[in-house]
């Protein structure tokens, strides 16, 4: 299924054919055996595979499937479901979907609420998208860039973004008037216990009050908790999911790698915005 996705060359809708997604102008995109396609803009096609590696994707999946973040996933799904009340067949886009852990639960939740959603997820990491597509049928997945989302103007009823890069102009462009944008960002104390190990002087995440042109904030809700991560593999996986992975001095990373158990606060801030109607 190609879902909401449009041709990255000309912007026309993509029709599903045997092993390709193709637009009416004749641009066609191979669908990999797992069921996803590359929809990067033409000038980006030959760049090196960006984003997470296959190994990092596997580690992250193991961490997520161990359930540490389950309360976040549940709340995300509830908020999405509430926002979409009254839309029987919503078009939902997961921007920066990773290996589809949240996307697949969104599909199940919306189905469970009696909707027939059309779900699409994209990510810049081919390894993540491949893992997502392999596992979760019934969702259209593509390798694509947040800076050039392969979806038509005003086509999405809900855009979800969990800890992924945010490009406001693109989110605003693909959102239907009256549609919703659901963001998850870290709370100030998210992973503070990990940062106490990593850094001599740990710091809290900045509390952001972000406004996006064309959107108004409907609600903001923090979901917080504490977890004990009881295996070095899961600690390493969690570490690799954070921006600290790339910028922590070696001594800090080594301190973390000597732990057999890590206790930390966690927290997601959910921000629900509504796309204003166009003038
Ligand atoms: Zn085209």
- CATH superfamily membership: Vaccinia Virus protein VP39
The major sheet is characterized as:
8 strands, mixed
Q: Name the ligand types.
A: zinc ion
Number of helices: 8
CATH classification, class level: Alpha Beta
Number of self-contained structural domains = 1
What share of the residues lie within helices?
A: 25-40%
How much of the polypeptide forms β-strand, as a percent range?
25-35%
Rg: 19 Å
Q: Assign an overall shape.
A: globular
Mean pLDDT: 93
Low-confidence stretches: none
CATH topology call = Rossmann fold
SSE pattern:
EEEEHHEHEHEEHEHEHHE
Distance between the termini: 34 Å
Structural class: alpha/beta
List the helices and strands and how they pair.
Layout: E1 15-16, E2 20-22, E3 28-30, E4 36-38, H1 54-65, H2 70-83, E5 91-95, H3 101-112, E6 118-123, H4 126-135, E7 140-143, E8 156-162, H5 168-174, E9 175-186, H6 192-198, E10 215-229, H7 232-240, H8 250-257, E11 262-275
Parallel strand pairs: 4-7, 5-6, 5-8, 6-7, 8-9
Antiparallel strand pairs: 1-2, 2-3, 9-11, 10-11
Helix pairs in contact: 1-7, 2-3
The chain binds zinc ion.
Residues 7, 9-10, 12, 23, 25, 27 line the site of zinc ion (ZN).
């Amino acid at each position: 299924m190609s879902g909401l996705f449009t041709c990255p060359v000309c912007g026309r809708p993509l029709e599903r054919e045997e092993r390709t997604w193709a637009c009416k102008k004749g641009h066609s995109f191979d669908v990999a055996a797992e069921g996803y396609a590359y929809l990067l803009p033409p000038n980006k096609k030959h760049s090196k595979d960006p984003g997470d590696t296959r190994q990092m994707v596997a580690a992250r999946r193991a961490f997520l499937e161990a359930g540490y973040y389950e309360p976040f996933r549940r709340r995300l799904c509830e908020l999405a479901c509430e926002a979409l009340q009254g839309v029987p067949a919503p078009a939902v886009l997961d921007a920066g979907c990773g290996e589809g852990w949240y996307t697949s639960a969104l599909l199940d939740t919306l189905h469970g609420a009696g909707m027939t959603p059309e779900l699409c997820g994209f990510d810049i990491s081919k390894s993540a998208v491949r893992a997502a597509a392999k596992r979760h049928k019934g969702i259209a997945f593509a390798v694509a860039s947040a800076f050039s989302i392969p979806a038509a103007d005003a086509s999405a009823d809900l855009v979800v973004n969990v800890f992924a890069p945010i490009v406001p102009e693109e989110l605003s462009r693909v959102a239907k008037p009256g549609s919703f944008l659901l963001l998850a960002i870290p709370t100030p104390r998210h992973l503070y216990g990990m940062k106490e190990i990593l850094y001599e002087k740990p710091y809290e995440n900045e509390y952001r009050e972000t406004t996006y042109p064309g959107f108004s904030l409907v609600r903001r809700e923090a979901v917080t908790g504490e977890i004990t991560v009881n295996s070095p593999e899961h600690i390493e996986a969690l570490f690799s999911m954070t921006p600290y992975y790339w910028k922590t001095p070696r001594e800090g990373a080594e301190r973390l790698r000597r732990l057999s158990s890590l206790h930390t606060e966690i927290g997601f801030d959910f921000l629900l915005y509504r796309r204003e109607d166009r003038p």
